[in-house]
Amino acid sequence: MLIVEAAARRFAHFGLAKTTMSEIAKDLSFSKALLYYYFPDKNSLYAAVLDHVIKNAFEEIEVGLQRIADCHEAMMFMLDRRIAFITRFYTLLEHSLSAVQQIPDEMACVLAEPKDKELQLINTILKKGNQTGQLQVKNIQETSEIILYALVGMRFSVLRDIKSEVLFPTKEEFDRILNLQKKMATILLKGLSMSDGN
């Protein structure tokens, strides 16, 4: 855990390319050999760091959602926290695409879990909306998937409008994406509060 936290600080500040295993070992007062004993290379350490910060972010969101009764407010909170996480770890996250190419198996495991967690968070918000009478959703699982795919799809659509190929968005692009995602989520939740559910 100490190694991952020290590496997270380095990667978040300097990025993957400008961080060396020697610097991380020095931060920990470790020998480089001991660091390599736990992590065979920088990419495997990067995958562990990414997994760690993503899990922590979801734990914070889950705790925050427990205190919010209004489902619209809960959805806005979730979207805000996602962008706050991306802004905080932007330098770390922008290398995730190249890491996927270099260590596809490790990164596939790291990136599969956030999708499942986001689905669970949306599921929780919709269930709470049903229980409190704010929403009328018949198929919560399917509706959660629709919302998640719409949120993810919006990111790629916005990026395609901006540039010719889909790369990691800039901080300004994330602000635009967040604004559009919030508007879309508001429209969807309003529809689910008036309909007989999906």
Description:
The protein is 80% helix and 0% strand. It has 198 residues and is mostly helical. The model has no long low-confidence stretch (mean pLDDT 86). It is elongated, with a radius of gyration of 19 Å. The protein has helices at 2-14, 21-28, 32-38, 42-66, 71-88, 90-93, 96-102, 104-132, 140-162, 171-194. It has a single domain (2-194), classed as Tetracycline Repressor, domain 2, CATH 1.10.357.10.
Name its key features:
10 helices, 80% helix, Tetracycline Repressor, domain 2, 0% strand, mainly alpha, 198 residues, single chain
Which fold name fills CATH's third level, the topology?
Tetracycline Repressor, domain 2
Average pLDDT figure: 86
CATH superfamily: Tetracycline Repressor, domain 2
Q: How many domain regions?
A: 1
The CATH architecture designation is Orthogonal Bundle
Judging from the principal axes of the Cα atoms, what is the shape? elongated
Give me the count of strands: 0
